[in-house]
Amino acid sequence: MTDCIFCKIIAGEIPSTKIYEDDEVLAFLDLSQATPGHTLLVPKQHVQDIFAYDTDLASRVFARLPKIARAIKASDPAITGMNIINNNGAIAYQSVFHSHIHLIPRYKEADDFSIHFGDHSDQSTPAGLEAVAAKIRTHLEA
């Protein structure tokens, strides 16, 4: 895709700080660096988001995650954890519409990165949860 910034990075038209590359994926440091070592893993095949993946692409991309995550963690003994995040759609904070996975090293609780979940326990009755699950299950592919 000619106007996609990640496609341009993959093609070498825009510089990046590469962490890992093979025939299927490219991993490079995110310019925003939520924490030091914040890395993006992108499939070389242009695909907008997780909803456009097929099982073959998913297995090719996600198979690389543990290797890259372990390398990031091993690079700094101060890393004590990692958030792995995949935003899909503008409402979910996806800002580049070429699928990408954020690997965000965590150093300490106050490392200026957090995710906040609201309390929706009032919506989590057994009957309510089963109704939501039933709706989802009707759309699962065999």
Notes on the structure:
The protein is α+β, with helices and mostly antiparallel strands. It has a single domain, classed as 2-Layer Sandwich (HIT family, subunit A). 25% of the residues lie in helices and 18% in strands. The protein is built from four helices and five strands, in the order αβββααββα. The two termini are 31 Å apart. The longest helix has 12 residues. It has a five-stranded antiparallel sheet with strand order 1-2-3-5-4, with helices on one face. The chain is globular.
Task: Write the topology of this structure.
Blueprint: H1 5-10, E1 18-21, E2 25-29, E3 39-43, H2 55-62, H3 65-74, E4 81-85, E5 101-106, H4 126-137
Antiparallel strand pairs: 1-2, 2-3, 3-5, 4-5
GO molecular function, one term: catalytic activity
Protein name: HIT family protein
Pfam families: HIT
